[in-house]
């Protein structure tokens, strides 16, 4: 005997028509404390996301009980901030685990579509100069417009090209390249690099490197740690400082670079799907890359809305490359070495 419906609705089968689900969950029905504890964000921020993403999340569907944008956003935020499709999370908004997964996919796609709107370098010279002034005010390092680092996010073993995603710890991961400003706002994020690539290789192949190599930000530089090669546009610390000026340069470099280390720690603290505490992301590399980027977009939107992105509890420090990898990063570019020497002579002698 044929079942007299075309599409099986998982939520309808699980809960029946009397359950408070889908379009019946209202933000006004719950307290601010509940929203923060379950979804990690306050009410007004969630309302903003509904306004921002609503059109994308209201696409036509064949399902008789389309999930509202509001509910989709809550489901996705619940996953991003908890790192798991918990039954209680779906129960709270009245949807099944299968529907939770669809919501995460929809919201992730909508956020990724808007990544360039929220993640970018300043477009005008005045804003770039402001970046330099702010970084200089932190520790006396001149000419800096951003700090750069990489972070590994664990993913499940992909079906193809498995070994390319195995990092030096033997785990499958994506190696993500990130640049931020002094407030922790992300200005560049590249999330699709396989975990087998070292940080220096990721940067060398990145679109970020292409921008600086073509002179797009001439007269400015980024700060990177010793896992990167010294470049004319990327200042790294000295491996073995000897003179007082070199020690002062390294101290200023470390104090300035700590901004990205703190930003990455708090990014993972807020979005627990990235920190591996609930296991690796159970998606393909492409989908995992998009989830990471979506979390980065939310991070910047949080900053724009005045949220303290550094208020999350700090977990473990970002792991650094083994000491043996440091020396090979030193002074391979003679012009870059000259610029760094001149910088130390002018500002740290």
Structure write-up:
This protein is of the alpha/beta class and 349 residues long. The protein has two domains: 32-56 and 66-117, no CATH class; 119-308 and 330-348, no CATH class. It is 46% helix and 9% strand. The protein is built from 13 helices and five strands. The protein has helices spanning 10-15, 32-39, 43-57, 69-82, 87-93, 97-113, 115-118, 125-139, 199-205, 207-213, 244-270, 285-304, 334-347; strands at residues 144-154, 173-180, 186-194, 221-223, 234-235. It has a five-stranded mixed sheet, sandwiched between helices. A hairpin with a 5-residue loop joins strand 2 and strand 3. It is globular, with a radius of gyration of 23 Å. Residues 1-23, 314-318 and 320-328 have low confidence and may be disordered. InterPro entries: HARBI1-like (IPR045249), HARBI1_animal (IPR026103), HARBI1_dom (IPR027806). Belongs to the HARBI1 family.
Summarize the structure.
With 349 residues, this protein is an alpha/beta fold.
Assembly status: single chain
Read across the widest sheet, the strand sequence of neighbours is 3-2-1-4-5
* Secondary structure: number of strands: 5
Q: Which ranges are low-confidence, i.e. pLDDT below 50, for 5 or more consecutive residues? A: 1-23, 314-318, 320-328
> In what range is the share of β-strand residues?
5-15%
Question: Which sheet architecture does the biggest sheet show?
Answer: 5 strands, mixed
Shape: globular
- Element-by-element helix/strand order: HHHHHHHHEEEHHEEHHH
Structural class: alpha/beta
- Helix share, percent: 40-55%
